[in-house]
Write a structure and sequence with these properties.
Three copies of one chain form a homotrimer. Chain A is an alpha/beta fold and 343 residues long. Chain A folds into two domains: 93 residues, Udp-n-acetylmuramoylalanyl-d-glutamate--2,6- Diaminopimelate Ligase, Chain: A, domain 1 (3-Layer(aba) Sandwich), CATH 3.40.1390.10; 148 residues, UDP N-Acetylglucosamine Acyltransferase, domain 1, CATH 2.160.10.10. The first copy, chain A, has five helices and 38 strands. Chains A and B meet through strand 21, strand 22, helix 4 and helix 5 of A and helix 3 and helix 5 of B. Chains A, B, C: Pathway: Bacterial outer membrane biogenesis; LPS lipid A biosynthesis.
């Protein structure tokens, strides 16, 4: 597969802003590793030095750039990362291909409702009684689907995923390998000195276009539903406890924990290694920076950091004053001494 | 399945404290979502506004409440959450059912000791040579049991769990999906500039009534045993390193890490995202709040927070003084200025 | 299996420094649990009290020790932990054994390139089309290998590991249970209010002698390669995002997160629960203590702590001054009062 310069310009709706020597391209590479046959892009100012020194055949650049590397064609586009994605779709040779059919080494219960001509179920996958699978869905190797699970259309369940009994996936849901949907919530009552398990009889619902990362765990509700809202994307190794409800189009980044019954609004971003306490609410479009620990309700449309979470400016002021503390201690000591000497 | 008001009162040992219109019930719901056919409960004061506005047919309430929602029956009970659990057991229609037998798509080595009429082994499960499985135990789909593993009675191993060679589970142990028991401890010696693996030849022992969360990892001992004590409950995504020993009836909440050879006493609580350093001891009934980082031995029967861990009062005093720092900096500057002006 | 005192001295290149009563040994135990038939070692000064009270038959000790427990033989060695490892190799009775052959309940695609006499593939394992497996490699139960994966010689893939399509493992790579290699990177572009998935068409490369912990996730590159350098050891529950590159012989401890496109030099240590932000560089031999949060490039050969990461001495000074803050607040108040009274 090859793309000409003209094809790249058309594909990206771009504008030629600097000429170079190459005219056809078959590779994809970072600015640092690219050679004359490769397409690359400048998507982050941290790579500006790499950009000026690149050997890429063609580079997709944002409009603010006015220097160009010698030898490379430069094409101006609105969003270099997105435009590069369009090239990737054309050039990437090694892509996953959907092949319908049930592998002989899969095991599917007799009463599972699905169209074997339109669903892919791979070796080692297990689908238990009473489940339903929509057309265009791919169940990869060693996936375990419990009883009565409902899976929509065009979902991808990667290898070794577990979806426990009665949980529901709407359409175009993607589950990265080894994530767990519907584990029991962590609930116990202390009875005669022993932690006694509280039955967890609810389910998990993953709405349309949700994606869940590798080795993430989403607990079923104690009763009712744990809900991940439409279009929300959850990264790897995230903990979502029982009865959590996230709004639509949230981003929940790696290693974050959402405690039991917390509620996120729409378009909330929770960056990596953050935590949201149980039973609290986070408003629409709130942004929690990395490691933020939210212990009380947080209003929407604001950016928070720290533990306990504070608006970013407030927390930064606190951190700045802390940096001045050693000097303050020294000056205070001197002042006391000079007053004593004077007195 | 339906329950009458009289049945609910008897089941929960409750007392009718406010009358309502409905007299039989078949559903379970939160205060906010409940309708006239549903049972609900007030288990957390955060939901008090939802309680007063609920449409639930019947609500289980604690004795301290003296207002009641119009239209709902209110029943006073000692512990509303626990009492609600008793109703859940009766009403939940979709519950897991134990079915004995070895699925034809499971693979069990010839010499495994178990009673096929009293054990459930599902499709895709693998049990290797020399293992033993007690009566009433359930091994779900795609579980991997290594060589020489000993599993007690009435255990539940959910799908895709791994128990590596020679590890031991006592009775009524529950393993949530995709947790790992008996991975190698993280141990290396630097030899000629290379990290050389230290053999990890010990095992993991999970005592009676232990529960382990989804995607949690518990490393085998270097030699000897990593032990999770009787009745201890470990949440999702927890790291338990080699040679850790926890006491009985501990609670280890999500995303916490217990480093190598640390020891917890009995009834220790470690809240979410906390960490306990290697080779230290935490006393009986100690409580580590979320994100606490314990770097030195901690005495029992106290509550800790912060990193390094401090008694809660001490740490809160530090945080409170930090909040006053910006004002102090300002006042100190003014004081110096006024002294200079005066001088 | 038994070892005599002479055999132990020879095996460890040790020197007899204190005589005892036992002369042959068949067990391995910690100082606290050992009896007269056991070998033990003093590897950490925290166990010095246990050492003096031990009932071990023989103890391996470092040269700095000049007290010896009564009744035990003491043998001085350069590195007691390493020397003990040599004894473990001899005495541990329950060790994993490599058995070549493809289990009938495994499923391997017809075109997979491997020597069935020199590779072990266990029940429930799935190897998809186009993959290659080197001699001496062990693929355990319920492992999922995607299409076109390349695996070198003498690797061990423990149960329920997932290696997604086209990823590459060099020689002697060890994957602990349920880790995921090659999950999609977390990349989205916001288009018309929806997070639209950015194709992740790169791979993961694990170089020679890499070990990856249980339930760790390593994302494939957006394009190009996510690389874990030769000899690097990654612990359990670690997140490695797309396009991360680690140098050789790094240690990445449990529950740490490495964000997208960050680069670690050689011999970098990142302790538990730390985080490294996206697109930054950490120099050779840098050490990040537990929970460190690195947000900017960090120079090599230094030790860092805190969030944001600072050189250890600087951060400790800040923490020390914070501890003096409550007293400062009090003294400042007194000073102001005394000046007012005087004025």
């Amino acid at each position: 597969m090859q793309l000409t310069l003209e094809e790249i310009i058309e594909l990206t709706s771009g504008k030629l802003v600097s000429e170079g020597s190459a005219s056809s391209f078959n590779g994809l590479a970072s600015l640092k590793e690219a050679c004359a046959a490769d397409v690359s892009f400048l998507g982050n100012e941290k790579y500006y030095a790499d950009y000026l020194a690149t050997n890429a055949g063609v580079v997709l650049v944002p409009s603010i750039v006015d220097e160009f590397p010698g030898g490379s064609v430069a094409i101006e586009v609105d969003n270099p990362s997105f435009a590069f994605g369009l090239i990737v779709k054309k050039l990437a040779s090694k892509q996953r291909v959907f092949k319908a059919g049930v592998h002989p080494a899969a095991w599917v219960a007799d009463d599972v409702v699905f169209n074997a001509d339109k669903v892919s179920i791979k070796a080692g996958a297990v689908v238990e009684s009473g489940s339903r699978i929509g057309d265009g869905t791919e169940i990869n190797s060693n996936v375990s689907i419990g009883e009565g699970v409902v899976i929509g259309e065009e979902c991808v369940l990667h290898s070794n995923v577990v979806v426990r009994e009665f949980c529901e996936l709407e359409d175009r849901v993607i589950l990265q390998p080894s994530c767990v949907i519907g584990s029991d919530g962590y609930g116990y009552e202390l009875v005669d000195g022993r932690h006694t398990k509280v039955d967890q009889v609810g389910i998990v619902v993953l709405q349309n276009d949700v994606e869940i990362g590798a080795n993430t765990a989403i607990d079923r509700a104690r009763f009712g539903r744990t809900i991940i809202g439409e279009g929300t994307k959850v990264d790897n190794l995230v903990q979502v406890a029982h009865n959590v409800v996230t709004g639509k189009h949230c981003l929940i980044v790696a290693q974050t924990g959402l405690a039991g019954s917390c509620e996120l609004g729409n378009y909330v971003t929770v960056a990596a290694q953050a935590g949201v306490a149980g039973h609290i609410k986070v408003g629409d479009q709130a942004v929690l920076l990395g490691r933020t620990g939210a212990a009380k309700n947080l209003a929407g449309a604001q950016m928070y950091m720290g533990m306990p979470a504070r608006p970013v400016k407030e927390e930064q002021k606190k951190l700045a004053s802390l940096a001045r503390l050693p000097k303050l201690l020294k000056e205070f000591k001197e002042l006391k001494k000079s007053l004593n000497d004077a007195g």
